[in-house]
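Exercise 4. Each item below gives a protein and its sequence. For each, produce the structure-token representation.

Item: LysR family transcriptional regulator (Aquitalea palustris).
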Amino acid sequence: MSLLRLRTFIEVYRQHSISGAARSLNLTQPAVSQHIAGLEVAIGRPLFVRQSQGVLPTAAADELATDIGDKLDAAEAALSTARARSADIAGNLHIIGHADFLAEKLAPALVPLLKEEIRVRLHAGDGPLVTQMLLEEHYDLGFSAHPVTDSRLKGELILSERILLVAAPAVAQRLKTASNLGEALLAEPLLAYNLERSLIDHWLEKNRIHAPGLIPALTGQDLRGLRSLLSQGFGWTLLPQYLCESQLRSGLLEEIPPPHGHTEIRYYLIWLPSKLRKPRIAHARQTLLWQLHTLSGKADTSNT
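Answer:
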């Protein structure tokens, strides 16, 4: 079995589409169909059932994808990284993710790539937009607080951060001394990432705090904006620890201790496997994984 046939199979399997796989692999649809037909002859079993819209994998396809999918991705990434060592990897690298994460966590990790003359283009977007833009191949790498749920994408956990309930000292004092924290929170303005309030609701649920009718005074998809308002003495919110560490140390903000425990937010590096066939992107992904894990380890050490 050729590597090209196996890659073609994986693309068709992940996209459930001959035409979609052809676009991703820069092949014609007849060429993709021939690769699949040749693979079916080689293993002696049909891999897909053709439908009016797309294809449906058979049990044999499920078994083959389980056996080779991740191994093939790893092999191609390793080959691309090896090529990058001897190839000119200069060029553009498009990255999409949460604005505050890109600015405060990712930017320091980009230095090695920038020194290699890779031109980085950062774009802000929330979790659903990151997924959509990666699938449509408008961007090379994505960073999201949402785990990968689409089988066409791959992701790796790069950071886990505690979520802290924070406010300016005067507001924090009122919340800390309140006999009923839920009622006290309702009495103060809430600043939130969006109206869905997933981080906030999770924290409240874990700490068994009842605060019905909680409506944000302000929503904004850059948590640094919320932090700025808090520093002016307005309202309360929940922030990842890395976004408020310096303000807590300086006394500009204070944490309101959770009654039952902290929640966490997790950040993932996400990519489309076919993108890793490009040496620049494979090299950038590996470099950023190493850099982010290294910088995170240094931050953990400095905070102990």
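Check: The chain is about 50% helix and 20% strand.
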